[in-house]
Design brief:
Blueprint (H helix, E strand, L loop, with lengths): L5 H8 L8 E7 L6 E8 L18
Antiparallel strand pairs: 1-2
This protein binds zinc ion.
Zinc ion binds next to helix 1.
Length: 60
C-alpha cells in the first residue's frame, strides 16, 4: 500500500482527514517524497464518502 502524508492524502482523495482520524507512522510519503507522518490506516472510515453514492453529493 502506498504511504501518503495527511496533506497529500487529503489532496488526492478530496477528503479532510485530521490526525485523530487516522493511524500515523513516520515514513516516506510517496507523493511529496518527504519523511513525514504517513497514514497507516484510517480510523474514522465514516468520514470517507463512498464514491458510488451519488445522491445528495454536490461536487464543487
Ligand atoms: Zn506528502
Amino acid at each position: 500500500m502506498a504511504e501518503f502524508c495527511l496533506d497529500c492524502y487529503n489532496r488526492l482523495n478530496n477528503t479532510n482527514l485530521k490526525k485523530r482520524d487516522v493511524k500515523l507512522s513516520v515514513d516516506v510519503c510517496e507523493r511529496c517524497g518527504q519523511v513525514k507522518p504517513t497514514i497507516d490506516y484510517i480510523v474514522r472510515t465514516d468520514k470517507i464518502k463512498p464514491p458510488c453514492r451519488s445522491t445528495g453529493v454536490s461536487r464543487s
